[in-house]
Amino acid sequence: MRGLIQSNKPLPRAYFFACPYRMDPGLAVCLPPSPPRCAKAVVTPGNETRVVTDEGAHNSVHRRNHQFSQAGRSVSMNHINLYMSADGRAVSRRSSGRRRKSKRLSSALLFARDAGIALLLVVLILFMMYAYTGLWPPLVVVESNSMMHGEDNTSHIGTIDTGDLVLVREVTRASEIETYVDGVVSGHRSYGDYGDVVIYRPGGTETRTPIIHRAIIYLQFDPTKDCYRSVSLRDAPEDKWSATDPQDTWDNLTSVLRIYHVGWNDLTVNVDIAGLIPTQKNGFITKGDRNSNTDQMLAGGGMVEVEWIVGKARGEIPWFGLLKLWTTDSLGSTAPENSVRNLWISMILIVVTPVAIDIGLTYKEKRAISRKPSKEQDSDAPYYKAVRREEVRAEAEPSVEETEEPPKQAT
Fold first, then answer.
1. What SS3 state is found at 410?
2. What is the arithmetic mean of pLDDT over 187-205?
3. What is the CB neighbour count within 10 angstroms for residue 245?
4. How many CA atoms lie within 13 A of 57 on its CB side?
5. Rounded distance between C-alpha atoms, residue 186 and residue 171, angstroms
6. Window from 47-56, 116-125, 352-361, 371-380 with minimum mean pLDDT
7. How would DSSP label each residue in 177-188?
8. How many H helices and E strands in the chain?
9. Residue 203 vs residues 208, 281, 300, 301, 341: alpha-carbon distances, Å
10. Which among 87, 231, 310, 313 has most CB atoms closer than 10 A?
11. pLDDT tens digits for 243-295?
């Protein structure tokens, strides 16, 4: 295969040479050097003509209609005659096919790499969550609005709302849980109020759906006095609690215990100690932040024993639990409108943001490449400078016609 740029006039050395090397696959195969007046030229898919110098690199690329100047005379690239044999075309097709196959394989490998990195990241996050919580699965979905704050059905960041995913940390002892009364003394708060929020199974049965409510107070049965006691009340402010029996103290509770100013809605929580004495059990009094009564009053069950508790809440992922509730049809109350809206916005951002970042980085990289001069252009610079100097010198020197004196006429 041979493509020759033919000219009946000698061309400067910087313009055209024969190339003894092989060009890019799919473009052309350069043959051994031709006479100085000939050079390899290939029309690329971008409608450009590539000229190869004797350096063996593709040192100059010019538009098809680019004009070369030599001492005031132009040689147009439109006048290039290209000749290609059938063997050369076959080689070009085979090279193009190999390049397409290599590109598909490279794309597949990049996709596999990205998918592997994403999967590894997910596994790493789940492992870290399990290491922190000690439970599997480490997350629970809030199905109802019993822990929401406010009269309207509006969710808030930092509180437990319908559709939230809550991270649960394992609990094995009662001392690991700080109740509402404890929090009033120590200042410990979680999810918008004092004390810890616990997740427990009513009755300790695995078949019951776990409940996520706030621990209000921990009561211990004293068999010697046949009463209950609560160390939390010992240090609590006097105006924070009272009992219907004036004789009751923090270590001798036998009547109805009243805890004042509880929660965002400033409720008074009543605990029927007399009704709990026959059970002779130790446990927690629990209540939903939005509920007006304790779980023990509403459900009629006993106190929440430590063995019933799955863990305590230690973090949340808002809104995304709605996806699970919708797919399993287990939504216990109407989903907050702002939670639904925020969920869709978040999902769109999760999809769009990586794509936008990738497009931006690709655009920035292409701009940097287009602005940076290539090695081919750098290698061409000396040749063009030499040619330009030759042109300037040719223009400055008078031509042969100008220097020749007209023949003298005989007188």
1. coil
2. 93
3. 15
4. 10
5. 20
6. 47-56
7. ---HHHHHHH--
8. 9, 17
9. 8, 13, 11, 8, 37
10. 313
11. 999 999 999 999 999 999 999 999 999 999 999 999 899 999 999 999 999 99
48 with 145, same domain: the answer is no
- Total number of domains in the chain: 3
Distance CA(83)–CA(273), nearest Å, equals 104
Q: Same structural domain for residues 219 and 340?
A: yes
Q: Output helix, strand, coil percentages for the chain, rounded to the nearest 5.
A: 40, 20, 40
- Cis link prior to 336 (omega < 30° from 0)? no
Are 114 and 151 members of one domain?
no
Residues 5-35: b if buried by 16+ CB within 10 A, e if exposed: bebeeebbebbbbbbeeebebbbbbbbeebe
Helix (H/G/I), strand (E/B), else coil: 285: strand
Q: Sign (positive/negative) of CA torsion 143, 156, 153, 338?
A: negative
For 193, residues 6+ apart whose C-beta sits below 8 A from its C-beta are 180, 183, 214, 263, 264, 289
Please give the Cα distance from 57 to 103 (Å, whole number). 23
The answer to whether residue 184 is domain-embedded is yes
Q: Is 260 helix (H, G, I), strand (E, B) or coil?
A: strand
Question: Residues 292, 303: one domain?
Answer: yes
* In a shared domain, residues 174 and 218: yes
- Please give the residue range of the domain that contains residue 315: 136-350
SS3 86: helix
Q: Which of 59, 60, 63 is nearest to 48 (CA)?
A: 63
**Domain for residue 363, yes or no?**
no
d(CA 284, CA 306): 8
Q: Which residues contact 14 (CB under 8 A, 6 or more apart)?
A: 383, 384, 386, 387
User: Which tokens go with 39?
Assistant: 């050079």
Q: Give which of 354, 345, 350, 324 is closest to 164, Cα–Cα.
A: 324
Structure tokens at 369: 């490449």
Q: Which residue has the tokens 């092989």?
A: 22
**Ranges assigned E (strand) in 263-383:** 267-272, 283-287, 309-317
In this structure, are 127 and 151 located in the same domain? Answer: no
